[in-house]
Design goal:
The protein is an alpha/beta fold. The protein is built from eleven helices and 15 strands. The protein has an eleven-stranded mixed β-sheet, covered by helices on one side. Strands 1-2 form a two-stranded parallel ribbon. The protein has a two-stranded antiparallel sheet with strand order 7-8. A hairpin with a 5-residue loop joins strand 5 and strand 6. Helix 4 packs across helix 5. 46% of the residues are buried. It binds S-adenosyl-L-homocysteine. The site of S-adenosyl-L-homocysteine has 17 residues, from strand 10 and strand 12.
Amino acid sequence: MKERVELTGLSQPEIVSFVEGLGEPAYRGRQIFAAIQHRRLRSFDEMTDLPKELRSRLNEAARASSLKIESRYISSDGTRRYLMKTNDGLPVETVFIPEEHRDTICFSSQSGCPLQCTFCLTAQLGLLRSLTPGEIVEQILIALNDAYGDGVKPPRGTNLVGMGAGEPFLNFDSLLKALRIMADQSGLYIVPNRVTISTAGIVPRILDLAKVSDRPHLAISLAAPTDVLRNELMPINKRWPLEELLKACRAFEQTLKPGERFTFEYVMLAGVNDSEEQARQLANLLNRHSLRAKVNLIPHNPAEPLPYRPSPDDTVTQFKNILESKGIHTYVRRPRGRDIFAACGQLAARQETLNACKELNTVGVGN
Ligand code: SAH
């Protein structure tokens, strides 16, 4: 059977040419784009403003959705984690994080991850495959429908972070395509200024992003101030060591526009990368490369069976104070959704220990 076209991953002009190929007028394409991306309908049968005969032809040639929600977990802090499955049965995880001013959705760019960061549970899955643009967009459609109700407009807009499973810069073209679809005014209308993408440091793609005008904010995961330690914690460092990475960061920083955010992330592992000496090394490293980017300290989220513990609060504060004293703006990120394995580095399609707070395909708050 011919593979059906995934319409969630097509831009509005692409859907228009797709329907024209079926002998339909252009306005039908615009109508279908809005049905998927603005009304967040997940099947052609729900698009009752389309002629029945067209709906049945669409069902044969295309899909309006491909991910299925497998389970949903709700944290005591309101964070929601969705474990979904692709068409071919692979896990995809997405996290909805309610916040005071504007809610955030953390999406995945790959099923599993090929990088072998020793402090991250996703690494244990290995790479299953990169997600398609449609699968990236769909995660957001599903999370919004669940959190606010089907098709209900997010009351205060939505922020996105590409910090779920996978390395976004190893799926660069699909990522940018998905972000452009989501930025469309007649669809989700989530503009790049509301999006932050985190990379472990794929240097050529950082340089590529520097040339993209409609780009999201960028965050770089450091986790160590020296090559010796970073090689151990993030083996990708052997391919692109700190010197090369920070040179690319400097080049990127020089292309920043007013209001654009560029940050470093540093996961705090007790007794491993959190000493006063390491804080000074980190500050000197960033200052030596004339980088002005802020540093986000992320307390490690425990993820059995990984051999790490989070740094104690006073160690984190001391680390922050040293960075600040050397002119580096530093924030400490508050962990969210740890109890449901929804926090950074905890996404590994976990199902087994969580039955207590698991609700299968139930309807979300807001309905
Ligand atoms: N591959 C990308 C995006 C996913 S990780 C990257 O490496 O940036 C998103 C962030 O979570 C990264 O900064 C990573 O260092 C951090 N992280 C990974 N495992 C973690 C854990 N167990 N606790 C806290 N942060 C973690």
